[in-house]
Backbone:
DNA sequence: ATGGTGGGTAGCCCA
């Protein structure tokens, strides 16, 4: 059995105590982090090594974005895609070398897309759609067993948001983003493993805004974080958990971790 | 309808 976690940590250096607590309490084999907000040289390598997470692939950037995959099972970095061609660190790909040998694990941080869902007045929204289109062309050519996980910044299903009608014009849940994500899904026949194990219409959120006084009040969440996979590896998924408790921790991330277990 | 909070950085950007 292999367990794989994903967590948008919103600054790994600030939140290393919370990461350590999560690893001690849940001990996933692999942890995919997004928004590490640091360069590789300042990544807390020693703290991860002390916990047994001695394998890693860190694609960092100063101050913004940045992704890292850390692991206690062997893996090696195989790719860093720049789907915007603008130098932002939003992806790192690894290949599992021990348990799960041969599986490719892609860690991605899709752009948030700004506030206005109209590319003519908000370039960030256009960049998000373009990023997805380039990912789609990339996925068309995939010929290996692949998992892709991370912060997709899109909540595609009605039950992925606290209020479907109210969010239809809010970036992350607009029909255009959902259609664009669906084309990405079709490009490789990806299975949405999270929803496979926690089927709609079950409540399923991974992010709650910092701007609410009490994140539980009204439960205004969205499922922005995902784990998708090639059909054959999706069949090996056995369990999936949303670790909501971290949203109550002191100085928490606005995202919570997802953990998926595979029979690999 | 609006603004609300948070992180990194360094004179605002991003989420």
Residues:
């Amino acid at each position: 059995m292999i367990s794989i976690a994903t967590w948008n940590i919103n600054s790994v250096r600030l939140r290393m105590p919370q990461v350590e607590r999560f690893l001690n309490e849940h001990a996933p084999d692999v942890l995919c982090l997004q928004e590490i907000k640091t360069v590789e040289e300042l990544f807390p390598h020693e703290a991860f090594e002390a916990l047994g997470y001695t394998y890693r692939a860190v694609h960092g950037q100063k101050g913004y974005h940045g992704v890292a995959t850390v692991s206690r099972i062997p893996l090696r970095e195989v790719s860093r895609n720049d789907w915007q061609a603008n130098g932002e660190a939003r992806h790192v790909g690894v290949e599992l070398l021990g348990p799960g040998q041969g599986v490719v694990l892609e860690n991605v941080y899709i752009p948030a897309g700004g506030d206005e869902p109209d590319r003519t007045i908000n370039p960030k929204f256009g960049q998000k759609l373009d990023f997805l289109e380039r990912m789609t062309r990339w996925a068309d050519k995939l010929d290996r067993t692949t998992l892709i996980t991370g912060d997709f910044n899109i909540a595609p299903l009605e039950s992925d948001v606290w209020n479907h009608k109210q969010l239809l014009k809010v970036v992350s849940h607009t029909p255009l983003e959902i259609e664009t994500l669906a084309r990405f899904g079709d490009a490789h026949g990806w299975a949405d493993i999270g929803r496979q194990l926690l089927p709609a219409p079950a409540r399923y959120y991974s992010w709650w805004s910092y701007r609410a006084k009490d994140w539980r009040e009204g439960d205004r969440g969205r499922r922005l974080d995902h784990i998708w996979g090639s059909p054959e590896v999706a069949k090996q998924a056995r369990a999936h958990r949303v670790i909501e408790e971290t949203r109550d921790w002191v100085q928490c991330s606005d995202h919570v971790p997802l953990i998926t277990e595979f029979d690999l």
